[in-house]
Amino acid sequence: MCAALAKPVLYTYFRSSCSWRVRIALALKGIAYDQSPVNLMKDGGQQLTSEFQTVNPMQQVPALKIDGIILSQSLAIIEYLEETRPNPRLLPEDPKKRAQVRMIAEHIASGIQPLQNLSVLQQMGEKKLEWAQQCISHGFKALEQILKETAGRYCIGNEVTVADLCLVPQVYNAERFKVDLTAYPTICRINKALLELEEFRISHPSCQPDTPSELRA
Amino acid sequence: MAASKKPVLYTYFRSSCSWRVRIALALKGIAYDQSPVNLMKDGGQQLTSEFQTVNPMQQVPALKIDGIILSQSLAIIEYLEETRPNPRLLPEDPKKRAQVRMIAEHIASGIQPLQNLSVLQQMGEKKLEWAQQCISHGFKALEQILKETAGRYCIGNEVTVADLCLVPQVYNAERFKVDLTAYPTICRINKALLELEEFRISHPSCQPDTPSELRA
Lengths: 217, 216
Fold this sequence. Notes:
Two copies of one chain form a homodimer.
Chain A: E1 9-12, H1 17-28, E2 34-37, H2 50-55, E3 63-66, E4 69-72, H3 74-84, H4 95-109, H5 118-124, H6 128-150, H7 162-176, H8 185-194, H9 198-202
Parallel strand pairs in A: 1-2
Antiparallel strand pairs in A: 1-3, 3-4
């Protein structure tokens, strides 16, 4: 089969919030793809194999094999999809609104998620849960303030953007770590509205090919 | 008149994230004012309620420009790229643009946040060891990526957003005494970039808020 026609391959873990961002983007843009699951827990962590290291030297998911290249870093992947498959758009036309979308996306993707990433939590030992709750709460407190200014139905106005792709998986993480979300009504409202959308549901951790049976919806 | 006011960058001399934006502003020839935020003094000036209205995340950098305030260095830089497109900091080709963003994100979310001030404060005595570990792990991967993509700079021979992230991260690595001999490509690129005027005038050693004992 001609390489140019091969479906994209997403290296993904069902519960990886970063992978979920990309799954949502692929769904929203109607891009058919294959999943190559990477189990972050099994066998000491399949992301640590030398085989996967050639896919992504940082040994993390997601990674996307597409158009003859392999990309890592969820936001870099999503920006590439946006530039090469521009419809429907995930970034507004107006540069100031685009900047706000990216600000919120980066706030989550570099300001919150990495601090509660698997490898960091493994360092925290017993303090793991407390640490995760702290990082997420601190980040959500700021995000709630930002969203009060920018949000309509979704993070920025009434169209789904990259910010929304980052929000829902981070709320999922917050729930996993039992963060009290009552102080963040805007975040909760937006999350609820987004989870009504087909693309956010079919990409959900509870129904992926690699979701363990005990966690399936 | 509000429209003709210079942009204001909230910055700390030694913040690597602030430095990325200082380089971008210099490369694009954008005149701006600095509003220094001392992350150590008075318990941390980023924690004041005044600064919280500038950036609710209570971090630098933040940029007041065109009537809005933006935080997150990469979001700021993409905004500058879109509104002041010359000289360009992202290639034309989408695949190369993706590689630039991949490297930038690798540093900006994969390495730097893990050795950010607030995380290090949690680590207590293990602070130095932790910072070295995060940076080494990230640089090991980055060295492998750059072997594929680099020319004179991170991606080919033009300065891109990836380079704006690299130099400040190497500066952090040196601050935390990371052994850089295993990363020859990173070192070579860093050296080449530091020969450029815009990387030098934005350097932590010569900012308005650089303490006298640390001035070049």
